Amino acid sequence: MKRIISIHFYLFILLNLYSQESTYKFIGVGDMMLGTNYPSDSYIPPKGTRLLKNVEEILKSADVTFGNLEGTVLNSGGNVKRCSDPSLCYAFRQPDSLVDQLLDAGFDLLSIANNHVGDFGSSGRTHTVEVLRNKGFCFAGLESIPWDTTTINNLKIGFCAFSPNNGTVRITDLENAKRIVKLLDSICDVVVVSFHGGAEGSSNTHVNKKTEYFYGENRGNVHKFSHVVIDSGADIVFGHGPHVTRALEIYKDRLICYSLGNFCTYKRFNLSGVCGLAPIVEVNVNNKGEFISGNVISIKQIGSGIPIVDPEQKALIEIKKLISSDFPESKIVFNESSFTKKL
Q1: Helix (H, G, I), strand (E, B) or coil at 129
Q2: What is the pTM of this model?
Q3: Which residues contact 204 (CB under 8 A, 6 or more apart)?
């Protein structure tokens, strides 16, 4: 009798351990530009400044942490994009050393599909790839690097990234997106998709479920894109690009973050009002990528662009308001900052 009880006890322990091991926490944040030495070194953080020190513990708590790296990684040189007034030109050239701050903060996945990755031409893109590869990041988004994979805690993760910009994998080419995601789904446990899309600014916080334009540029239909990639096998969609926070949606038991806002954008970004607020979104999934639960940690940027946890939780308040407005049929249920799926 004791032996039977003992066997049952150990089976219970093993099953419990398996259950714990098969739940994974992913964290997603939005735009990151850690400082640029163009047009002058005055846009570089003072030596010794740890931009992410106030949120490092949160970022490192996940199995997998994602962010969008805006701009090139390049110490000097490159062919800067044309600007009528260089002093007003938003061209981002981040020195190699700043990328170590992302490594130290626990980032695993980086999108380089955005409108600033080409700011310093082909040499800027080439050097960015070399640095990120040498530092061991999983990254994607250029036409030459449409996807990547990594294995973390015995979970094989497929990652791909899209934007509307030249040289990147296009958010507007849905057939290509389907092909990439289906391939990753066939070889990976969980597929993470990132997109840089949608119109920019404080007047563009809503997901309008239409093709969005900004200064005449087609920025994609982010709602349709997100649903298409999930239909094709994606498990988590992390959106960014509008520089403001947008709603969350659960679709087919998968989480979509339509815009994660400005997370750590030093000096060269507008941080007034909603542009200075952003969420750190935690999403717990099983080993098939199915949504289990989530949490929204509100941050704001202080000074020239240093993220701290916002005690007033303004990003969370904004997300709840936008979900109610844009997805009134939403399956998301909040309990303070944590959320689950409505049964």
Answers
A1: helix
A2: 0.93
A3: 198, 212, 214, 242, 244
